[in-house]
């Protein structure tokens, strides 16, 4: 795998006493960086989607704890503040729990920085492994559809679902790549297309509403998505619109793959029914690129994740292995 070509973006960068984040609200038009110098700035950046994507949120939060320790702030309130930044992606809570365990053995900033760096490094290694495992499932001459952004921007690097796509393209098995826009925040249009174009991977953007029509055409054999939280029975929360893709995929005989590191698996959550789904400001739907597009006085409902039942998932790819036809028994075999 040519990582020089396929893994060049690092959106979360630790700089010794501050955290540098590529501002994902401005991509692809502007590549601007934000410097977070304390835990509350990191919390705000997570909440405002400067940094987004489940693994990247967890990594940023871990560095937020390091900043609090460096400034000799009380760590419990910093942990609680970061934890409350967004509710659905369990990587956030997972990373903070890991930092908390490290704090219990000593709260020196240098030790905590080693832990945050380990979280970041392990995520990159997991993504590369999942790329190999996921790409091995894809037959030659395949087309794939992805949703949201699951690439280097959303992780420590390489990506989860986008990592599998990168690996499949590099291996020659994936011949066609489609990305849904991902309204309302346009992660697919703004971020996934940005990554694919930078890598020189030919890809076509589709309106989210074109997905079923695309599947009917026979052009895609797999839908490949990431996850924000995978419950003990395999139910998977991911970006709003994922569930309808899974339904359309099953109807058209298209396979459905979820790619996520073990830090996204939440065995303490029994099923998708109890996953908290983040509701964001309706204003995100009422305007496009900062310009109001909907009549004044209109209201909107803006859930930003949904749950795909395990029964609609053909494979969950983690760095620990592939779980085909996931259910609680299959999940417990890998995750205890
Ligand atoms: O609201 P976002 O942009 O943070 O949502 C991101 C997603 O839903 C991704 O698919 C998921 O976090 C996996 S990223 C590797």
How are the SSEs placed, and which strands pair?
Blueprint: H1 3-6, E1 12-14, E2 19-22, E3 33-36, H2 39-47, H3 54-70, H4 75-83, H5 90-104, H6 109-135, E4 142-146, H7 161-171, E5 174-180, H8 187-199, E6 204-206, H9 211-217, E7 222-225, E8 229-231, E9 236-239, H10 242-252, E10 255-259, E11 265-266, H11 283-286, E12 287-288, E13 291-292, E14 305-308, E15 315-318, E16 321-324, H12 328-335
The structure holds 5-S-methyl-1-O-phosphono-5-thio-D-ribulose.
In brief, what are we looking at here?
This protein has 336 residues and is α/β, with parallel strands linked by helices. It has helices at residues 3-6, 39-47, 54-70, 75-83, 90-104, 109-135, 161-171, 187-199, 211-217, 242-252, 283-286, 328-335; strands at 12-14, 19-22, 33-36, 142-146, 174-180, 204-206, 222-225, 229-231, 236-239, 255-259, 265-266, 287-288, 291-292, 305-308, 315-318, 321-324. It folds into 2 domains: 3-126, Four Helix Bundle (Hemerythrin (Met), subunit A); 131-335, 3-Layer(aba) Sandwich (Rossmann fold).
């Amino acid at each position: 795998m040519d990582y020089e070509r396929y893994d060049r973006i690092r959106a979360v960068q630790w700089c010794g006493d501050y955290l540098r984040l590529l501002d994902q609200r401005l991509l692809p038009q502007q590549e601007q960086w934000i410097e977070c110098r304390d835990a509350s700035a990191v919390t705000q950046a997570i909440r405002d989607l400067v940094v987004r994507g489940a693994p990247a949120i967890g990594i940023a939060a871990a560095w937020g704890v390091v900043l609090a320790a460096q400034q000799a702030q009380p760590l419990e309130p910093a942990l609680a503040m970061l934890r409350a930044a967004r509710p659905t992606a369990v990587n956030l809570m997972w990373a903070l729990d890991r930092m908390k365990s490290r704090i219990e053995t000593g709260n020196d900033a240098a030790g905590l920085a080693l832990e945050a760096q380990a979280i970041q490094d392990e995520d990159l290694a997991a993504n590369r492994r999942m790329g190999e495992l996921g790409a091995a499932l894809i037959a030659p001459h395949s087309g794939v559809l992805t949703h949201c952004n699951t690439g280097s921007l959303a992780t420590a690097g390489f990506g989860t679902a986008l990592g599998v796509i990168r690996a499949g393209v590099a291996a020659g098995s994936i011949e066609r790549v489609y990305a849904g826009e991902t309204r309302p925040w346009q992660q697919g249009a703004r971020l996934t297309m940005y990554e694919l174009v930078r890598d020189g991977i030919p890809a076509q953007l589709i309106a989210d509403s074109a997905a079923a029509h695309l599947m009917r055409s026979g052009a895609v054999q797999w839908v490949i998505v990431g996850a924000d939280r995978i419950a003990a029975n395999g139910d998977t929360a991911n970006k709003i619109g994922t569930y309808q893709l899974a339904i359309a995929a099953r109807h058209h005989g298209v396979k459905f793959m979820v790619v996520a590191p073990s830090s996204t698996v939440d065995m303490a959550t029994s099923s998708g029914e109890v996953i908290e789904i983040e509701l964001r400001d309706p204003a995100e739907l009422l305007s496009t690129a900062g310009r109001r597009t909907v009549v004044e006085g209109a209201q909107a409902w803006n859930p930003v994740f949904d749950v795909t039942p395990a029964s609609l998932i053909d494979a969950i790819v983690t760095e620990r292995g592939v779980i085909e036809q996931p259910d609680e028994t299959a999940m417990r075999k890998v995750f205890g």
